[in-house]
What we know:
With 193 residues, this protein is an alpha+beta fold. It has a single domain, classed as Alpha-Beta Complex (H-NOX domain). The chain is built from six helices and six strands. The strands form two sheets. A four-stranded antiparallel sheet has the order 3-4-6-5, covered by helices on one side. A two-stranded antiparallel ribbon has the order 1-2. α1 crosses α4. The longest helix is centred in the middle third of the chain and has 17 residues. The model has no long low-confidence stretch (mean pLDDT 93).
Amino acid sequence: xxxxxxxxxxxxxxxxxxxxxxxxxxxxxxxxxxxxxxxxxxxxxxxxxxxxxxxxxxxxxxxxxxxxxxxxxxxxxxxxxxxxxxxxxxxxxxxxxxxxxxxxxxxxxxxxxxxxxxxxxxxxxxxxxxxxxxxxxxxxxxxxxxxxxxxxxxxxxxxxxxxxxxxxxxxxxxxxxxxxxxxxxxxxxxxxx
Length: 193
């Protein structure tokens, strides 16, 4: 894909469970000291790191992206690898915890339900799920007025780990074949297992 751009404003938000998972992952890598992130953050994002994030709280996407970038800097690893791991950790933590009831043994049923329930977790983007084969599918997320390649990389990791949590036969493969950040009309994730 071509050059990645982002558009972040005041409207797009995600539920607190995503940020909680990202901060838990960072805490494990930074010996529990999230204070290392604070000097790299705006006051709004720093307050989220220093305070208590509630699972049902709406967190501005711009803050999650800023915090994820600070995490990548603090752990000193390639940013895209970190964003990917943050998404994976979010799926592992939440689908084995607070959202365990959403997990399914049928990956197609899970992703169909996730597309229907998307607005409970993200207030931006309109997802659609399409089964492309017995062990493959496609998620298309359109109509995103705000977007970031950080979020897309995290989403790819989330979808991979979600399939693993469901114990699909594998091998699991997820790739983003189109991206709003590269000028496409929608983000498209092709999955096979």
